[in-house]
Amino acid sequence: MSLDKEETRQRLKAAVHFTVGQLCQKMGEVHRRDFSRQVIAAITETTFRQCDVFATDLEAFARHAKRSTVTTEDVKLIARRSTALSKYIQNKSEELNQQRELKKKNTGKRKSRDTEEESRE
């Protein structure tokens, strides 16, 4: 692995470690528990490795479908083994689609109004 890739990987891992630490701190406050540094490091390592696996699988799904872009359908395939994660991703996907549809409708209305104003002139 080149120096730039290794440096990027280490920076990503540090960001994941920081985020895991923040989440553990918040959860610890809510549940009145403390997390040791070793536990935070273990959660970080597990999370980072799982993200690596997800990334590899997502690339494989897109390649199998002869695409160069990962789609939401690929992400849904990744989540199929976890019912809770699958439901969450499905809900988010539907939410994003609804927002996209609203945006299209609003953009269409603006174009219609602009066209009407131009034709009046």
UniProtKB/TrEMBL annotation:
Bias (Basic and acidic residues): 92-101
Region Disordered, annotated ranges: 90-121
DNA-binding is among the record's keywords: yes
InterPro entries for the chain: CENP-S/Mhf1, Histone-fold
Ranges of Basic residues composition bias in the record: 102-112
GO aspect biological process, one term: resolution of meiotic recombination intermediates
Sequence intervals crossing the membrane: none
An MF annotation (GO) of this entry: DNA binding
Xref: PANTHER family: CENTROMERE PROTEIN S (PTHR22980:SF0), CORTISTATIN (PTHR22980)
Family: Belongs to the TAF9 family. CENP-S/MHF1 subfamily.
Protein name: Centromere protein S
